[in-house]
From TrEMBL:
The keyword Transmembrane applies. Residues 128-175 form the Squalene cyclase C-terminal domain. It comes from the Bacteria. Residues 259-284, 389-409 are annotated as: Disordered. It holds the Pfam family SQHop_cyclase_C. One of its GO terms (molecular function) is metal ion binding. InterPro entries: SQ_cyclase_C (IPR032696), TAT_signal (IPR006311), Terpenoid_cyclase/PrenylTrfase (IPR008930). The keyword Electron transport does not apply. This is Squalene cyclase C-terminal domain-containing protein. Residues 265-277 have a biased composition (Basic and acidic residues).
Length: 444
C-alpha cells in the first residue's frame, strides 16, 4: 500500500517510505545488492545466526527487523484485521501506541519507547498517518490520534502538502496518506490549510497531476514530486484515492454501481469534460484521470503494474497492483478493477508470504474494497495468514464480514504502499526506513 519526486534514479537522495521497507529488504536479499539489517527472531521462529538475532518486541507483527517499517506494518496489520472483524491482541495495540513521541509524531521504530524522542528521532508523516488510521478505526485512542493529527498539521508545507520528512518538498504519496488520516480522524482535509498561503491538502495534491501539456500516454497521471516530474503509477494510485478523500480502507460499492473509467480527454490543449472547474475544485476529475492512466498501464502489462526497480522492469509489482485495485474501487470502477484483482488472486500469495504482515494486509484491503472474500482469495485465506504473523487475536466481531459496508469505526481509503530503493545505502547511512530521504521511483 504503499510515500517523493525524484530525479533520475542515480541521483535521487535515498528516500522512501516506511511502507515498502519490508518489501525492500526482501528484494535486496533476492538481488544480493544491499546489506540488510540482521533479522529479529520471534519466539518459536527460526533464529538468525548465533549472536546476530534480537528478540522481537512483544506484540509486534512480522519477524524481520522493524527498523524501517515497524509502525507501518503494525498499523496496516491492525487496520486490516479490524476491517474483517478480527479483534487484535491487546499487546499489538499497546506496542503501536507506545511508539508515539510526546509531540504526537511516530517514527518507523523506537527500540526503547521509554526513552523520549529527541531532535535526532526521525519523525515520519507516513508512519504517523498510518498509525492514525489504525488507531482511529480500533477506537479508544482518541487522545493518541488527536496528538498525531495535530503534529501532522504542524508540519504541513506551504503548498498544502506533505513530505515523508518534515521540511522536505511535498510529494503525492505522503500528501495522500495524510489526507486519509485526516478523513479517518473526522477532520475534513479541505479545512486544514497551510499557515502561509492558506493552501489545502487537495490544493497540494493536485499540483502533482499531469494534464494536457504532457504526451498523451501520461495525461491524467500523477508524478511523485514536481522536480523531475514524470508519470508515476505508484503516485497515481495513491493520489486517485486521496483525491476522493479516502484512506487505506475503501468501502465496497453496494448494488450494481459501476462507473466507467473516463481517461483525461484534451481538446485544444485543455481538459475536456469534468476534469477541471468542478464544485470540488477538480478533485473528482483528477481521480478519474488517474484511474484512466492506471487502467491503460494495467491493460498494457497484462493486468498488473511492472516494477520500477532498475533492472527489474519486466517483473510485476504486486504491491502497486493492489494499490491500483483499491484506487479503482474507490472511484466506483468495479469492472476496471476486476481483471487486476483476478491477477492478484493468481499471483500474489508467494509475494505476501515473502513480505509478511503489510503485504497480507494490503491484499486484505484490496479484497475488501472490491467486495471479495479475503478468506478465499485465489485459494489463500489471507486473514488466517495475516493473523499468523503476529500475536494471537483477541477474538472476532460478531456479524462483521469483510464484504460488508464499512462501520463507523472504519477509515475510508486506500493509499499506496510504494516501493523502496536504495536499501543498502539507507541502512549504511543509519537512515530509519529509507526515510531520511526515501527514494522513490518516478518512471512508471
Amino acid at each position: 500500500m504503499a510515500p517523493m519526486a525524484q530525479q533520475a534514479p542515480s541521483t535521487h537522495p535515498v528516500a522512501f517510505l516506511a511502507r515498502r521497507a519490508a518489501m525492500a529488504l526482501a528484494a535486496a536479499a533476492v538481488l544480493g545488492g544491499a546489506a540488510a539489517p540482521a533479522a529479529y527472531a520471534a519466539d518459536g521462529a527460526d533464529s538468525a545466526p548465533a549472536g546476530s538475532a534480537k528478540k522481537l518486541p512483544e506484540g509486534l507483527y512480522g519477524t524481520k527487523d522493524p527498523q524501517y517499517d515497524g509502525v507501518w506494518r503494525q498499523s496496516l496489520a491492525l487496520l486490516a484485521q479490524h476491517t474483517v472483524g478480527v479483534r487484535p491482541a491487546a499487546s499489538a495495540v499497546r506496542w503501536l501506541v507506545g511508539q508515539q513521541c510526546a509531540d504526537g509524531a511516530f517514527t518507523a521504530f523506537r527500540a526503547e519507547p521509554g526513552k523520549p524522542c529527541d531532535a535526532r528521532t526521525m519523525r515520519d508523516t507516513n508512519q504517523t498517518a498510518a498509525a492514525v488510521q489504525a488507531l482511529t478505526a480500533l477506537g479508544g485512542h482518541d487522545e493518541t490520534a488527536r496528538k498525531a493529527v495535530n503534529w501532522l498539521k504542524s508540519v504541513q508545507n506551504d503548498d498544502g502538502g506533505w513530505s515523508s520528512m518534515a521540511g522536505s518538498p511535498s510529494d503525492a504519496n505522503s500528501t495522500s496518506v495524510v489526507i486519509g488520516a485526516l478523513a479517518a480522524a473526522g477532520t475534513k482535509p479541505e479545512s486544514v490549510t497551510s499557515k502561509k498561503g492558506g493552501k489545502t491538502p487537495y490544493d497540494g495534491l493536485l499540483t502533482f497531476r499531469l494534464g494536457c501539456d504532457v504526451k498523451e500516454g501520461e495525461r491524467g497521471a500523477f508524478t511523485f514530486q514536481l522536480k523531475g516530474a514524470a508519470a508515476n503509477a505508484d503516485a497515481t494510485a495513491a493520489a486517485a484515492t486521496g483525491a476522493l478523500g479516502k484512506g487505506f480502507v475503501v468501502a465496497p460499492a453496494g448494488g450494481a454501481a459501476d462507473t466507467p473509467v473516463k481517461p483525461l480527454s484534451c481538446k485544444d490543449g485543455k481538459a475536456d469534460g469534468k476534469a477541471d472547474g468542478t464544485s470540488d475544485g477538480g478533485r473528482a476529475g483528477a481521480a478519474e484521470g488517474g484511474a484512466g492512466y492506471l487502467v491503460a498501464q494495467l491493460d498494457k502489462n497484462g493486468h498488473h503494474l511492472p516494477s520500477a526497480m532498475p533492472g527489474q522492469e519486466k517483473q510485476p509489482d504486486v504491491g502497486n497492483t493492489a494499490d491500483a485495485v483499491v484506487a479503482l474501487a474507490a472511484g466506483g470502477h468495479r469492472s476496471a478493477a476486476r481483471q487486476p484483482l483476478k491477477w492478484l488472486e493468481k499471483n500474489a500469495s508467494a509475494w505476501a508470504r515473502q513480505n509478511g504482515p503489510a503485504a497480507y494486509a494490503q491484499l486484505v484491503l484490496a479484497a475488501h474494497a472490491t467486495g471479495t472474500d479475503p478468506r478465499s482469495f485465489g485459494g489463500t485465506d489471507l486473514v488466517t495468514a495475516l493473523n499468523a504473523t503476529g500475536p494471537e487475536p483477541a477474538g472476532t466481531t460478531p456479524g462483521k464480514d469483510a464484504r460488508a459496508a464499512d462501520t463507523a469505526g472504519d477509515s475510508d481509503g486506500g493509499v499506496n504502499v510504494w516501493w523502496v530503493i536504495g536499501v543498502g545505502l539507507a541502512v549504511g547511512a543509519g537512515i530509519g526506513f529509507l526515510l531520511s530521504g526515501r527514494r522513490k521511483k518516478n518512471d512508471l
